[in-house]
UniProtKB/TrEMBL annotation:
Glutathione binds at residues 109, 146-149, 164-165. GO terms for molecular function: glutathione transferase activity. Residues 189-313 form the GST C-terminal domain. The active site is at residues 69, 212. It comes from Nelumbo nucifera (Sacred lotus). This is GST C-terminal domain-containing protein.
Length: 345
């Protein structure tokens, strides 16, 4: 069955306190001034079963991303790590949000008009869309909600399969193994699944989404609460990573990729832009070396475009950085040596 929920059908109870249906992350605010993320909407699953509505076929699916976005970047990381570049094509949008239509004020992800306009970003090769918003409108005429990346697109049915990165990475990990060049890599192995789920839960709340809760808080109290949770979670990671190479033991898993996408943005963006400045990542020896270690896994550095990352955050959130000036530092070299080989894998 092909599933599509209109945003309002799946709102959790805390969302009733938000002022209106969010059209972008800038609106996701509760009355207490805390940032509240809206759930994703398209939740279909690609399956290795050829009889399913969305079977895992080479050349059928396309991933729309922004290099700036940590959620999209985790999907791109799985695509690269699993060796799916030939099977699943992808396109990156321009980093800075712009008007998506002349007829209203919505700001969001747009495509360049040529490959030269913005290195790394490409025009939409499938639908000639001007914006990610247009893709949502092609997929569903009555869509209400945010126009987020990642978008996993079905070229055959001309629709969005799924826009929830935590599900897209599971599909890439397990459903394309007849096609994947690196099918043997299992980042969500059965014997570690409950441990990975448990780590993902506190890493998501404290760190991945935690930095957004710090940055988008509109009042002191929710900001300070988010900061407390963030640094508690980072301290826990530091402690764990002083004893083992990866966050769930001595094997790379999904939980590492999910943690990495936030850590790699931390000192360059979140310390300044989201006021996560109690401690910088580079002050945590284990977390800092761990971030370098993951960055140096073949394929991973190509998922990190720091130019896009900085241009997006500092340029797209006028409530946080109204003039859009981009801080110049710190330009950390994540390809420099690290000490993580000291753990056996
Ligand atoms: N739940 C989604 C979240 C994706 C998300 O929040 N993407 C942001 C970029 S980092 C976005 O596209 N925001 C558009 C907007 O807020 O208008 C996922 O993990 O896939």
């Amino acid at each position: 069955m092909i599933s599509f929920f209109s945003g309002s059908q799946i709102l959790p109870s805390h969302f009733k306190h938000t002022l209106q249906m969010a059209r972008s992350a800038l609106d996701e605010m509760s009355i207490s001034g805390a940032f509240v993320r809206t759930p994703s909407t398209f939740r279909n699953f690609i399956s290795r079963d050829p009889a399913s509505p969305f079977p895992a076929e080479s050349g059928r699916y396309h991933l729309y991303i922004s290099y700036a976005c940590p959620w999209a970047s985790r999907c791109l990381s799985f695509l690269k790590l699993k060796g799916l570049e030939k099977a699943i094509s992808f396109t990156a949008v321009k980093p800075k949000w712009q008007r998506t239509k002349e007829t209203d004020e919505h700001m969001g992800w747009v495509f360049p008009t040529s490959s030269e306009e913005e290195p790394g970003a490409e025009p939409d090769p499938l639908n000639g869309a001007r914006s990610i918003r247009e893709l949502y409108e092609i997929a569903s005429a009555n869509y209400i909600g945010k126009y987020t990346v990642p978008v996993l697109w079905d070229k055959k049915l001309k629709t969005i399969v799924n826009n929830e990165s935590s599900e897209i990475i599971h599909m890439f990990n397990s459903e394309f193994n007849d096609i994947a060049e690196n099918a043997a890599l299992d980042l969500y192995p059965p014997h570690l699944q409950s441990q990975i789920d448990e780590v993902n839960e506190w890493v998501y709340n404290g760190i991945n989404n935690g930095v957004y809760k710090c940055g988008f808080a509109k009042k002191q109290e929710p900001y300070e609460e988010a900061i407390r949770n963030l640094y508690q979670a980072l301290d826990k990671c530091e402690e764990t990573l002083s004893k083992q190479r990866y966050i769930c033991g001595n094997m790379l898993t999904e939980a590492d990729i999910r943690l990495f996408v936030t850590l790699i943005r931390f000192d360059e963006v979140y310390v300044v832009h989201f006021k996560c400045n109690k401690k910088m990542l580079r002050e945590y020896p284990n977390l800092f070396n761990y971030t370098k270690d993951i960055f140096q896994i073949p394929g991973m550095s190509s998922t990190v475009n720091m130019e896009h990352i900085k241009r997006h955050y500092y340029g797209s959130h006028p409530t946080i950085n109204p003039l859009g000036v981009i801080p110049v530092g710190p330009n950390i070299d994540y390809s420099s040596p690290h000490d993580r080989e000291r753990f056996s894998t």
